[in-house]
Structures are given as C-alpha cells and as structure tokens.
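Recap quiz, item 2
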Amino acid sequence: MSGMSRGFRVGVVDDHPAIAAGVPVGLRDHLPLDGECPVASTVRGLLETAHELDVVLLDIRLQDRSAPADNVRRLVARGWPVLLFTQVRQPAVVAACLQAGAAGVVGKHEGWTTLAAAVRTVAGGEDHVNADWAAALRVLVEGRAPALAPREAQVVNLYSTGLPMKSVARRLGVGEETAKEYLARVKRKYLEAGRPVHTRSELYLRALEDGLLDPPGGV
Amino acid sequence: MRTDEVVVRETFHRVAAGVVAINLVVSAVDVVAGPGVYRPGFAPAVLAVLALLVVSTVHRSFAGRGAQEPLRGAVAVAVLALALHPWAVLRPVPYPPLLHALGAVITISAIASVRLSLAVVPAFALAVAVLRAPFLGSFQAAAEATLLALDGLVVTATVHVLARAARSVHEAVGHAWELAEERTRVWQRTRTREQWDGLVHDKVLGALDLASRSVHERGPAGAARALAAEALSALRGEGLPSSPAVERWAAHAGRLGLDARFRVHGRLENAEVRDAFVGAVNEVLSNVERHSGQRSVTVSGFLRAGNARIVVTDPGRGFDPASVGPGVGLRTSVAARIRAVGGDVEVRSGPGDGTAVVLTWKPLEAPARSSALQWQLRSFTPLVALAWAVLAVVLAVSRGRWATTPSPVAAAAVILGLVALTAGATALPPTRRHGALVAAGALVVALTGALDTALAAPTDWRYWYVSAMTPALAGVAYRFGHWLGLWTATALTAAVMLVDGVGGRPFWDVLTGPAPVLLAVVVASELIRAALSDAWTTVEEAGRQAAELRLALAAEAERESEAESRIAALEGTVAPALVRIVSDEPLSAADAEELELLESAVRDQLVAARLFDEELAAAVRRARGRGVDVDVVAAAAPGRHASGDCAGCRPAVRALLDHVPGGTRVRISWAGPDVTAATVTAVGAGLAPAAAAVRAAGAGQGGALQVSEDEDAVLVTFLPRDVSEEPG
C-alpha cells in the first residue's frame, strides 16, 4: 500500500458540495492525508481531475441519476478502490455495488473514526467488512443460491444482524478465525467467482420487483 | 403493421379463391361436356370474368393489400349471371353447368361480407329451386334449396365466428400490451421519482448532519445553511418537472393572491379529465381564498393516464363538513366536475383544523374477460340452431322414402335416434362419458338404418340416415374430445360398408355418396374447434396477464401515493428545523443535539416507516438520549415471505431499548415493507436485564420471537408465522 511514507490520497464523489468539502476536513484529524483531496460531484468529474488515488469515497446516489453500480465499475476500472459512503444503506443497492467491485460501505452518520479506519483498510486492498457489507452479501445469497454450506449461510445471516464476529463464532461453536474464513468463502462465491454480466441488471430489476429498491428507503 | 387479424383475413381470402377456382374447373368441364345449354359465349364469358377476379384476389392477398373488392366483384358477377339464367339458358337441363361455380362464389360470400352473404345465400337457394323445380318436383326442389341455404349459412356463421375470435385475440393481446407498456412507463416514473425522493432525503439528512457538526466540530455553518435551503425547496416540490395543469393553477392562485405551493407529478393526456381537474382545483383555490381566513395553500399529488389524485390543503380556519357552510360550494361545483368524469371528491376538515380536499380519478376498465366469454358462448348458438334445421330438412327430404323401408317401425326408431343424437351432441355437457355415449348411439343408429334399408334402393337416397347424422357428428367433433367425431364417422362408414358388402351390394357405394361430405364436415368441425380453442386460450392468457398488470399498476399507484404522504410527513417533521438552520441565528449545543436526534429519527423513518410508531420512536429517542447507539437498517428479505405483521415485535424492541445500558450498540434490521422480519442486536456489557425484559415483553408472541444471549450480545429475532427460515 501507499499510505505509509506519505499521507493517504482520498477522492470524494458527492453531489452535495458542502458534504464533499467537509469530509477531508473531518478525516484529517484521524488520518494523514496527502495534499488536497480531489472532490467532485460526479464520477466523470473525479475521473477527469484526479490522477492517483488510494481510496474513493463514493456517494451511492448522485444528482446526475447515474446507476450506482456503473459508477463503481468506472472507478474500479481506473484502479481505484471504492468505499461507498452513503446516507441510507440499502442492502440491494450495496449488493450491486459490491458485485461491481466496491470494497465496503460506511454510513454518513457513522463517526470519523469509523470512516478513517475503513479508509485505511480499503487503501490496504482489503474489504471493509461490517454488518452492512454482510447484509448486502445476504441479498445475493437469498437471491440466487448456488451451493452454500449451512455454516457459511449461518455466518452471513448472523453477522449481518450486527453481532460481533466473536459472538457469531461462539454461537456456531467455532473459532473466530474459522468464522472469518467462512465469510471470506461466501464472499468469493458471490462476489468474485462467476460474476456474469447480466447479474447486476437482473439483480436491479429483481430488487425493484421485490420492493427492496424503495426510495431511499422508500420503505 | 401486420396484425393477427390481417393474417386471418388473408387466409380466408386464399381459401375462398381456392374453393372458387376448383369449382370453376368443374363448371368449365361441364360446359364443354354439355354444349348448347347456354347462349353462345355466355358461359365462357362468366367463367373468364370469375377466373380474372380469382387471380386478382390471390394476387392482392399475397401483395398484402385487402382482397375484399375482387371477392365482392365475384359475388356481384355470380348474382348477375344467376339472374340472367332465364335469358341465357337455351336448352334447360336438371343441373345447369355454371351452378357449380356460381354456388361456390355464393357459399364463400361471407368472406367478402357477412351481411352480403345473409342476403345472397337465400337468394341463390331460391334461384336454384326455381331452376330445378321442373325436373325434381316442387317439394324436392324446395327441400334441396333449403339445404343449400342452410349450408351457406353454416359457412357464414363459421366465418363470422372465426373472424370474431381473431378480433378478440387481437384486442385482448393488444390490451395486455398496452398495460405492459403503461407499467413500464410507471416503472420509469417510479424510478425517477425514487431518485428524486432520495435526493430530497440526502439533502435533509445532510443539512441536519452538517448543522449539528458545525456546532460540535469545526465545520462551515454556511454550508449547512445552503444545504438546508436546498432541502426546503426540494421538499416543497421546486425542481420537479411541472405539468401544464400546475401552470394554470399557479396562475389562478396568483390572481387570487394566494401563497400556493405545488408538488404535482405527471400529466393527464385525457383532455376531458384534465379540464375537470383544472376547473375543480381552481374552484377549491377560490374557496380557500374566500373562506379559510388566510392565504397559504398546498396542492400535491399526481396526474396519470391510469390514475389521478390531487390533494389541496390549507391550514385555515376549517369547517364542520357535516354542517352547512363552505362545504356546499365544494360539494356542488367541485364535486360535480370531478364526478362528471367518473372521479370522486372527499373533503376533510374540522373547525380550526384546516381543510384538505382530495380529488381522485380512475378510468373505467372494460372487463376483458367477460367480453371474451361472450363470443365463445354466442358462437355456438347459431351452429346449434342450424344443426337442428339441417336435420329437420334432411328428414323431410327423405319422408317419401323411409316409408318404403322393410320395417317402418325400425325407420321410425332411426329417426327418433337421429333426433336424440343431434340433441345429445349439441346440448349434453362435453364430458368423455357423454361423448362415448353419443358415438355409440351414432353407430347403433347407422347400423339400424343400414339393415332397415332395401338393398335395391338407389345409391342417391339409400344412405339418407348417414346424411342426416352429419349435424350430430359435427357437434361431436366441435364439442367433445379430440378426434372423437372423426373416429365415429370413420367407424360408421365402415359399418355401413360392411352391411352393404355382406348383403351383396358394392361396398364402396357409400364412399361415392354421403360419406365424403360427412368426413369433410367432421374434419372442418375439428379444425374450427381447434382454432377457437387456441383463440380462447390466448384470450384467457392475455386476460390473466392484463389482470395481473392492473394489480401491479394499482400497487404502483398505492406506493406512489404513499411516497407522496411520506414526503409530506417529512416536510412536517423537519421543515421547522431547516428554517431554523437557514436563519442566521447561531445554533447552541442543545440545538445541535436536537438536530442530531432529528436526523437519526428521519433516517429511522426512511428505513422502517412501518415499524416506527410514536411509542417506538420515543423509546429510540430516550435510548439515544442515554447514549445508546441505535442504528436502524433495511435488511435483506428472508427467503420466504410472511403474511404476518411485525407490529408485534414493537413492545419487545421498546423493552430492549429501555433496559440496555448507555454505550450499548443496538442494530435494528428491518426487512420491509411487505416482508416482515426483524432482528435486533444489542452489543455491549450488562445486557442480562435487557434480555429478561425482552423475554417478558415478548411472552405473548408464541414462537415468533426468539431471544438468544451470550456474554456480550443479545440477538432478538422476530419471524411471524410462515417464515420458517431463520437468520442463523
């Protein structure tokens, strides 16, 4: 990773200039940043202005009405790890973004500490694994079910409820590392192995049908 | 555009051309074989003109242009040629050679026009009767003419029924397509709208968040102010694409001097309904100006092709809708306009409560299913009537003959059997058992008829009972199981051949008599039945799809109006806070805390509007006040959908929130809106009392509520009834 000798290079895509401008200010207290953070209100804007980035914080819903998963794909194609940064975490939309290559999701209301930790993890090439990440994975698991061992399904289900990994492992009577390994295996099955092109749109339509894609939560 | 209907019509035209062409050849051969019947040149001229029209029909049909004109021309030529017969025939013969060709044209005249055929078929029959009476005797000629007319009318009815079936299929499929397209449009609109709603929420949440942070941390207060102003204008519907109706209302409100806000989506293409809405809402606005005692008014809702709903609200002095008062004007001038186009108006008000006038409209839907049923039932009635008529005529024609049979009693039994068979084939419910019964009866009647007819009887009337059975077997083929009619006709023919062969007659005689006609009619009935059955299946399927689509559209409309009311509720909740942020007054620490709680509450409402009632919202607020970190998230739907309601989990969630110590992280995962399953996780220390409280509160929930705890976490799972798949 690159954030060792110098600060982290973080790009922000958010259609509210006020929020976008506030993020570097808040982050700087918890994380060494490298120079000015490039900020844009659209993905295209960031692609045009930024050169090299360690992490992109991407607002899921942008004013230009672009599809979230497409945005993720375009950033990932540039080689930039994407961390979703959103007001409302909708598992179905997050799922589509994870499939497109996003590395995790952080709520805008979560503290700077959480965001800073997530930026470090993602810049290091890892996924920011939290309950929302697992909840999105669960959407995929529920949607189409290739072979998934009962234990693996249980880990995803339990972890997505917000239980700490330690507690999940205890409930399943396995070690914490084993539980983590289960989670990693599920991730491979659903996010990496066989990522057919049609799946995302299919998933999107299905989510619409199922009412999962209600307005920001139009729940 | 090529429709199914056009394809069916073209097929009809080609069949008609084929039938006429064959008979033209037969007539031409007859003309050559019996010279001198007509005035020189008459027969060749008629045949040549008809041949040209047939060629034109085929050509136009394949070229994709309608072939109605040449067909109608052929019918006109046939009628004219027939009318000229008394003049044209020089040497009368029992069957003038041109009658084959002219009869074929008249028989298929229904394809050119059903109404035309209803006129020319009986006319042709009458002409044939007149031409043949000198040779056959008047009774026989009349009977033969009646048979001809009935045959022609059967063809007419069949063509009519098939064309109608094709039209029904076309309409039903078209209707389903229209609905499907409408649904796609609604989907598109819903997505756009959801996106817009999302932006509104982002702005609201962002403004509250930035404002509270600007107090606690370093943060630009100006940015919060700008975002709050944006959020306010978005909540008030500015920036939404407006419709022409809104412009007219805005102009009217401006003239009245009202401070009006509009949040109206979509547009109505139906001018009548649109004008009714424009006029009615203008009337409501005038009422607000006259009676509400203030100048502020909000118009919200949507106008769409399939559904319209406009709500006009004012915070004025209101009135009692039950008493006489301003309500009279509303009920008459406003309600009259909307009801005139099939809509409805509801007035909600109370003294001091302000007034809301709700105008709704939905188009009347034609029930596609029942219209499809109609043609199916109606199609059969004329066929039944014609079958009876044909039977009666055949019996009448044979009257003088069956009296000469070896056993008049057996002949009487055969006639009774024929009547019973025709009745059974046309009226019995089409079950397998009834089909087998009628088929067996037909065989018995045929054998009895064959054994009871003198072997020496001439071929042309010996098989009268076979001809008389044609309607009954057509009925069997049309109404009962596959191939039953054909099998029966074949078996019956074989039985007659057997009797003839054993008795010493040439066994093939029946094959040159009525058997081919019988078989042809039966096959035709099978084909018609198959065509109608296919058409019926298609119409039914289209009707089913249409019904589903209508349901889906209604659900979308419901969601849209829910989204509408959610936005209105959001505005009510956050507008004061946003106004406060926009104002220049500095925010205190207490303000900031209030804004944070408000932001969380808005977020909760967004994610789980149906879970949150006032009590639960208060419990969450209390817990957050104590330093509990409460996070409400939308969860993935469980594998199976439950029909139950998660309302039952609220007391348990409240108990948990009230008993967890400060510093605990609580995550409420809610899978909604229709799927009802929830999990609540509390992570922290000292959770045992909370777990006990949840168990006590959830005691009445049966197995739906499960609580499991370990050292540092409590997991509460709520899965009502049908959902058996547990998360974990």
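Strands of chain A lie at 10-13, 39-40, 55-58, 82-86, 105-107.
Confidence is low (pLDDT under 50) at residues 193-219 of chain A.
End of item.
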